[in-house]
Amino acid sequence: MTNKKAIAIFEGKQIRRHWDEEKELWYFAIMDIIEILVGTDRPRKYWNDLKTKLKAEGSEVSEKIGQLKMPAADGKFYLTDAANTETMFRIIQSISSPKAEPFKLWLARVGYERIEETEDPEKAIQRALATYFKKGYSKGWVDLRVKSIEIRKDLTNEWNERGVKTNDEFAILTDDISLNISGKSASGARGRKRGW
Fold this sequence. Notes:
Distance between the termini: 29 Å
Order of helices and strands: EEEHHEEHHHHH
Radius of gyration: 21 Å
Mean pLDDT: 83
Structural class: alpha+beta
């Protein structure tokens, strides 16, 4: 697991989290986030009340909550209510707290941007390019990335027309494109068995 630490820090407080390799999703300890955003020393009561409120409103959030064993303050592992990023954001939308407000504003902005991108898909491309540059990638790297996306799209369309459907076959395609353009495998698994 690379760069997948089990603890994140927010405002100096720990948030327990778990990376699911198979689903490629983060799961966060709900109690930790509630304790930070609400400032309560009784996050379980707040969470129970919030679940009841959400259910009364017709929300299906509680059906998306799972339990994972996460470390407690005593060092032992206990089952803890956990949510993936999408569900966690939905929970944060329902938390009444000034600390939750920046998240709510950010979610509103992102939602608005997605609506804009639906109306004008070029805005999505421009935002992606701006994000790469903000992360410090060079113009040459960004140009190669855009080129690889275009090539993969063309090849994926070709493969679809020829009946290729499995994820493994598309993963092999992605690796081959990456190797040919950048000299590096997308998965890092250069020795992976080829399917043809």
